[in-house]
Amino acid sequence: MNTDFYRIRRLPPYLFAEVNAMKAAARARGEDIIDLGMGNPDLPTPQHIVDKLTATVQDPKTHRYSASRGIPGLRRALARYYERRFDVGLDPESEVVVTLGSKEGLANLAQAITTPGDVVVTPNPSYPIHPYGFMIAGAAVRHIEAGPGADLMGELARAVEHSVPTPTAIVLNFPSNPTAQVVDLDFYREAVAFARKHEIYILSDLAYAEIYFDGNPPPSILEVEDAREIAVEFTSMSKTYSMAGWRIGFAAGNKDLIGALTRVKSYLDYGAFTPIQVAATAALDGPQDCVEEHRQTYQRRRDVLVSGLAAAGWDIPAPAATMFAWAPLPEAYRDLGSMEFAKLLLSEAKVAVSPGVGFGEFGEGYLRIALVENEQRIRQATRNIKRFLTRHTPDQEPVSGAMAELA
Asked: Does pTM top 0.85 for this prediction?
């Protein structure tokens, strides 16, 4: 029986599998591993949101099928959020759809608008769903370098010029996972003008809109005049309100794209559990001091990480947003590569991180470090790394002999 399935065949090997297997084995041996790898928020969901969920779930009527496109109250709440945060007015009936997290929305929109042979432009390095959602849908993906120092608009212009057929869509993600880069509204104006000229859709991932530091709120592409002619934007409750496991997100913007996504979803799901949608409405409409508290917590963790690694002799840029630091490998370890260095940190410093190459070829030479442990644990991680870097150089056998495990 044939098991060489077409869509599975298009997916590359999961590059984080090796590090994850080593992490699991170390923990099975009783080792204390400080996990700064996966971007899984550790902060609790604010209590008023949990209380709304538990109150709503007591009503048996909420246990029935929900609305695939999202309950009206939640779509209106998202529109109110855009109005007060970005001064953007949205029609909750035609320009908003609720998704099961932004990841599901991106994947199902890819299914809705893509046919085999279409070209989609995605950043590299990038969050995996950005290219692979379209690869699963059958598209050809053209990667453009989007790391620190890259000329993104120049890369984009070259990609479009040399693509046959003309790309269907461009994926943008700012603040960026994994690189933590941010852009200003002028960048979005230029991107929108470019996309309108070439009749290309823009899919903007704004999942980290509220995790920003130093008082610089990231803009929305929908703030640009005429952006809704070609753009749709994905947002999420996961990071803003520490609701990652609740699986609630949104797509907003271009009516044609929202209509296509809504129609596909109507065949695939009945929407999130109604009490979760009601609680998400309470999150968007309720007190927002919890968002500021989360933001300050991540900023303190960022500062602890950056200063601790600097004390260890490893200087990394302080991210302006997201819950990640995008850290270039220490100079002495550049030739080792991000995967081997990540495995070395796990074996010798007991710190798990994500190798940059797992986010695309242009991620090589970097690590993504997630701010998902408390300040004390992050200090412990930087002390462990300092001890490791002090006692070990790339041409030495590690103290524990763990290089045999890495071979």
From this structure: yes
